[in-house]
Design brief:
The complex is a heterodimer of chains A (about 160) and B (about 140). By secondary structure, chain A is an all-alpha fold. Helix content of chain A is about 80%, strand content about 0%. Chain A has one domain (about 1-160). Chain A has helices at about 1-10, 15-20, 25-50, 60-90, 90-95, 95-120, 135-160. Classes of the chains: A mainly alpha (about 160), B mainly alpha (about 140).
C-alpha cells in the first residue's frame, strides 16, 4: 500500500520536477544539512545539560526554554526539505534499509521527547542548579544517541541501498 | 581508504556530526550577540559555556577532514581547487575571527561591535559550509 503510494508520488510533477532539475536537488540537500546544524546543534546542548556534562552552570529550565525555539525552527526546515527530498525518489527511499532505520529512530526520538516533556520535565522548577533527576538524564542520553544515529543513517541512505 | 567501501562515508559522518556541533555553537553565540537567544546569560557566559564544545567540534572536523582530504586530494587539486581553497580560507578566517575577535568581544561586554561581528561570522561560517557541501553534492 505504501509502495503504491510511493509509485504514485513519483509520477507527480513535483517529484519529476526535482529529479529533472539540475539545481533544486543539491539545494534541498544543502538546506537539509544546514537546518540540521540548527536542530542537532541546539538539541545536543540540551541533551548534554540533561546528562550533566555540558552547560552545567545553567539550570536545565534555562537551557531548555531558550534553546527549544531554535530546535523547532531547525526541525521545521529539516522536515520540509526532507519531505521534498523524499518526494524526488520515493520508491528508492521506501526500499532503503537505512532510510527505514532512520524513520524508526526518528519515531523513537520523538516518543522519547514527548514522554520526557509530559512526565519528568513537569517538575523542572524543583531541580535547581545541580544534576537533573535520573530519568531526565536517561532521556537526554537516549535523545543524544538517537540523533547521532539519525544523522549517521541519514548519510548512509546516500551511499548504500 | 579509497579501497574501502565504508571508510569515506564513516569519516564523512563524523565530519557532519562535527559540523552540526560547530555551527550549532557558533549560531548560538551569534544569536546571543544579536539579542535573539540565550538572553538570560551574558555574551561572556554563553561564550564560556560553549567554548569546550566549539573546540571539540573543530577537533572532530579536523580529524575527519584530513582523511577525507587525503582520499580526494587528486580530484580536489585538478577539478575543485577553487572551491576547496575558498572553503579553507573561510575556515581559517572563521576560526581566527572567533578566537581573536568574537570571544574577546563577548568578554569585554562591548555592545557596539557585537552585532556586525556576529553578522560577519555567520556569513563566513555559512560560506564555509556551503563551499564544503558543494564539494560533496555538486
Amino acid at each position: 500500500m505504501i509502495l503504491g503510494w510511493c509509485e504514485w508520488l513519483m509520477e507527480t510533477w513535483v517529484s519529476v520536477g526535482i529529479r529533472e532539475s539540475l539545481w533544486v536537488y543539491p539545494m534541498l540537500h544543502f538546506a537539509h544539512i544546514l537546518s540540521n546544524t540548527l536542530m542537532f546543534g541546539t538539541i545536543v546542548f540540551l541533551d548534554l545539560r540533561l546528562i550533566g556534562v555540558g552547560l552545567t552552570k545553567r539550570r536545565v529550565s534555562d537551557v531548555a526554554e531558550q534553546l527549544l525555539p531554535w530546535t523547532w525552527i531547525g526541525w521545521g526546515l529539516m522536515f520540509v526539505s526532507g519531505a521534498f527530498i523524499f518526494t524526488s525518489d520515493p520508491v528508492r527511499y521506501y526500499g532503503s534499509f537505512f532510510f527505514r532505520i532512520k524513520m524508526l529512530l526518528m519515531f523513537l526520538a520523538g516518543l522519547n521527547a514527548l514522554v520526557f516533556h509530559f512526565t519528568v520535565y513537569r517538575s523542572v522548577g524543583t531541580w535547581g542548579d545541580g544534576k537533573a533527576p535520573g530519568r531526565a538524564r536517561l532521556s537526554g542520553a537516549v535523545s543524544l544517541v538517537s540523533w547521532i544515529l539519525i544523522l549517521v543513517t541519514g548519510r548512509a541512505v546516500g551511499y548504500f541501498d | 581508504m579509497s579501497n574501502s567501501r565504508y571508510g569515506f562515508p564513516a569519516f564523512e559522518m563524523v565530519h557532519l556530526l562535527g559540523l552540526g556541533l560547530l555551527l550549532g555553537s557558533v549560531l548560538l553565540l551569534n544569536a546571543r550577540f544579536f539579542g535573539l537567544g540565550l538572553r538570560r546569560q551574558t555574551a561572556a557566559e554563553v561564550a564560556s559555556d560553549l567554548a569546550p564544545w566549539t573546540r571539540l567540534a573543530l577537533v572532530l572536523m579536523a580529524f575527519s577532514g584530513i582523511p577525507l582530504f587525503a582520499s580526494k586530494a587528486p580530484d580536489l587539486w585538478s577539478e575543485e581547487l577553487g572551491t576547496f581553497a575558498l572553503k579553507m580560507s573561510l575556515i581559517v578566517t572563521g576560526v581566527a575571527f572567533h578566537y581573536w575577535v568574537q570571544v574577546p568581544l563577548a568578554r569585554s561586554g562591548n555592545s557596539t561591535w557585537g552585532r556586525p561581528a556576529a553578522a560577519f561570522s555567520l556569513l563566513v561560517w555559512l560560506g564555509a559550509a556551503v563551499a564544503g557541501l558543494s564539494l560533496e553534492f555538486l
